[in-house]
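Example record

One chain of 509 residues, shown exactly as stored in the release files.
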Amino acid sequence: MDDSALILRNGLLLDGSGGPARKADLAMVSDRISAIGDHLIFPGARELDCSGYVVAPGFIDGHSHSDLQILESRREKLLQGVTAEVVGNCGFSAYPQGSHAQQLRSFANGIFCGEGEWGWDSARDYLDVAHRLARNAAVGSLVGHGSLRIAVAGARMDALPEVHIQEMEVRLRNALQQGAIGLSTGLMYAPGSSAPSDELIRLCKVVAQEGKIYCTHMRDYGFRLLEAVEEQLELARRSGCRLQISHLQAVGVANRDLNARALEMLEEAHVRGVDVAFDCYPYIAGSTVMTQLLPQWSLDGGLDALLLRLSHPAARSRIADETILGMANTWDELLVSAVGSDRNASAVGRTLAELAQLRNQSEIDAVFDLLLEERGQVNVLEFNQSEENLRMNLNHPLAIIISDGFYVKGRPHPRLHGTFPELLGNLCRERQWMELAEAIRKITSAPADRFGFSGRGRLQPGAIADVTVFDPATIRSRATYTDPERPPAGIRYVIRGSELLLGQDGQVA
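Predicted structure tokens for this chain:
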């Protein structure tokens, strides 16, 4: 008898390859898939009846910002069927902190929703903690370029001297050799936004030499989308690195025609041998920190320096002019989602146009004063793209599908609670934007291959026994922009390494 075995009976298996479903049993022993077939017999095995349910590989969120919360085994992703996450995206990672720990926290807390004295000196230190504490999901961590830059040089906004570039190369190589899966940049966020291409090429060469991946939040997704794509393709050509463009989209009504051309550029580069792909989330709206709306030179020296500039009339006027000039969104497409204190809790859920009207101010003054009052701790939702472009991107063969979810002190984007059920329920079943088998591939084997999750992403003998079971007739997200923290429906079981983490009643097993 083998009481370590678990058999899923009579499920419809979508194995992650993109192929059609087939009815079969799946047996797991220890932490591995042992067998797939009809009428499997393992004396003493536990059994779950999966009749009418889809049995799929555990979902992989290839772009997440749960760097701190994954250590707490938070349940938001588990409830969606996620069993692995890639953190450290958009230039933000929880390491290395170097001698600038406080500046690292100031830089990243708006994305990490961090509190207290968090921070790690190395990838090894962070990953040791993650492997010990992250019960619900396997963790793949990218080295954030912004964090790396701060560790070496603080929050300065200029081209770094050679000695600093060399130190960044050494620190990056060490992190990759210690288990980090690649490098990420956030080129719309200070201080990474000040990095010239030559600095990035130096670091991307290290990534290529170590056989890892480079992921980028590009410099622009609006008026200069095509220039931003070309810069990243040139980095890949010159360094030889594998390139992953994060959350590809064309922001703003005036720029929607750029989306198709951006895809053509990626296709052409791919045909010519550049190892390039991209990811996207299944929503027209994104989410970020409000300071991203500003010209990033205004954050030179960190948050305190920005707040001083916003208090100085001449600097404030210059920042206002450049902010307005660079905006691809309109004020009523931007919505306050979180603030750092209770003082402005009434601003949450209001567009910036509504906030300005409530305060009897111009929109730009309302933004600046809110940032001053909250010491920069403000998050916004941005209604960025068209449904036509979203559907085009989700279905593209170079695309994987991700959440880009992060926690806030307020109202999060619904993707934090609903991305994968939204894809499988609303977009696949209801709107028929994509075949279910292909959607499963884009959230299992495709990200596993892209980010190096060995043994995950496929249902096959010998693979790690990470499995998500869902009801294809009822799976859906219940999270909305106005009520974003509602858990999804239709996820029946989540199994990680043969351990049942989520039972049919939606409770942790």
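Notes: The mean pLDDT is 95.
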